[in-house]
Write a structure and sequence with these properties.
This protein has 376 residues and is α/β, with parallel strands linked by helices. The chain has one domain: Ribokinase (UDP-N-acetylmuramoyl-L-alanine:D-glutamate ligase, 3-Layer(aba) Sandwich), CATH 3.40.1190.20. 39% of the residues lie in helices and 24% in strands. The protein contains 13 helices and 14 strands. The strands form two sheets. The protein has a nine-stranded mixed beta sheet, with helices on both faces. Strands 2, 3, 4, 7 and 8 form a five-stranded mixed beta sheet that branches. α1 packs antiparallel against α13. It is globular.
Length: 376
């Protein structure tokens, strides 16, 4: 691992993200990061709940009664899978075009840093709002997302225009459409994009990245329909479906895959291979907290670490991983190297509460190489 990281460090120094272009859509959220009070000692001092189980038990124990749960706001930041992924790409030095729900008629101030750095921005409606309840072992996202109902293919055509949409999403090295679960008209938007896109004249196929974003609240029929629509993009793109470990189990269940154990219990390699073979996309990638695996062209690739038991911010870690992984692929790195870039990008993010610049990413990879096997 140490040798691979040092080789990656050397490779990245000779690559130029500024030559790359990315199109991302279509969500947008204002994220309010909050902690849950376990016990308050005084008006200005409290002990926070550090594990999700504490939060769940506090609610369960109040069943049939009532209870008061106190949230303490810590910070407000841009949110949504699309803006967080786009922001990580911008920080990495990539040219980004964003289309989504960032505020209308005025873009919400939390997105200003992103929109100022993007090559072009089209905002079609107000953003949603999320209270991101953070624990040491995960997070609970409490979302208010009615405004995303306004992100439709008709709205995109009216406010962006068909020709501009075609130019943005056909001309990019990577097109990313994320947060399918919370975007009720994403299938319609995908169908609209498919109607505009034609094969590249020289046979080149850019990347098309999809993040379903916790599809557990959607019906199995909806999920199967979405997967079939995603598959259609394979005629024009190298399609990447990115999942976290929970999502991978849910998709495996919906697809009725035959596994050696229940989907939640099988190891990463088995579920990645099974999903990859079943879906037939160019790349099926799964990224648990401390490892990541991908199935590309019949071959399994794996990367591990770096792990910290004390992340400062976990909301957006997966989006930063996705950005780093896709960045590596666009730069021409191998799949394993791209997984490592994804892990380094998210690793930096959870420790520093922001996405890394190219220099910060290199420094983090160097530090990781020096401390392989250690928690840092």
């Amino acid at each position: 691992m140490q040798t691979k990281l040092r080789q990656l460090y050397q490779e990245l120094q000779n690559l130029d993200p500024a030559r790359l272009s990315v199109a991302v859509g279509f969500d947008g959220f204002v994220d309010e990061i909050v902690e849950v009070v376990d016990r308050r000692e005084s008006f200005d001092s409290y002990t926070r709940m550090t594990h999700m189980k504490q939060f769940g038990e506090r609610i369960s124990n109040a069943a049939g009664l009532s209870t008061n749960i106190e949230f303490v706001p810590k910070t407000m930041k841009l949110g949504g899978n699309g803006p967080i992924m786009a922001n990580a790409m911008v920080k990495a030095g990539v040219n980004v075009s964003y289309v989504g729900a960032l505020g209308r008629p005025n873009i919400h101030p939390v997105f200003t840093e992103l929109t100022d750095a993007c090559a072009q921005v089209y905002s079609v409606t107000e953003p949603g709002h999320t209270d991101a309840v953070e624990f040491d072992d995960g997070k609970v996202m409490l979302g208010k997302m009615e405004s995303l109902n306004e992100v439709t293919w008709a709205a995109l055509q009216e406010q962006v225009g068909s020709e501009q949409l075609k130019k943005i999403f056909s001309g990019a090295d990577l097109a990313a459409t994320v947060n399918w679960t919370m975007m009720p008209y994403m299938n319609e938007i995908w169908d609209g994009l498919l109607s505009l896109i034609s094969p590249h004249p020289d046979g080149h196929r850019p990347f098309f990245f999809v993040d379903l974003a916790d599809p557990s609240k959607r019906s199995p029929e909806d999920i199967r329909e979405a997967l079939e629509t995603i598959r259609k993009f394979s005629a024009y793109y190298r399609v990447i479906l990115g999942l976290n470990r929970k999502e991978a189990s849910e998709i495996a269940t919906v697809r009725r895959l035959t596994l050696s154990k229940p989907a939640k219990e099988v190891d990463l390699e088995e579920i990645v291979k099974a999903l990859g073979e079943d879906l037939g996309l160019w790349c099926l990638m799964v990224h648990p907290t401390n490892e990541a695996g991908a199935f590309v062209d019949g071959q399994y690739y794996y990367a591990e670490g770096p792990f910290t038991s004390k992340p400062r911010l976990t909301t957006g870690a997966g989006d930063n991983f996705n950005a780093g992984f896709c960045l590596g692929l666009m730069l021409g790195l191998g799949v394993e190297e791209s997984l490592l870039v994804g892990k380094a990008t998210s690793g930096f993010y959870v420790r520093h509460m922001h996405s890394p610049s190219p220099e910060q990413l290199l420094d983090f990879i160097k530090l990781w190489a020096d401390r392989v096997g250690e928690e840092f």
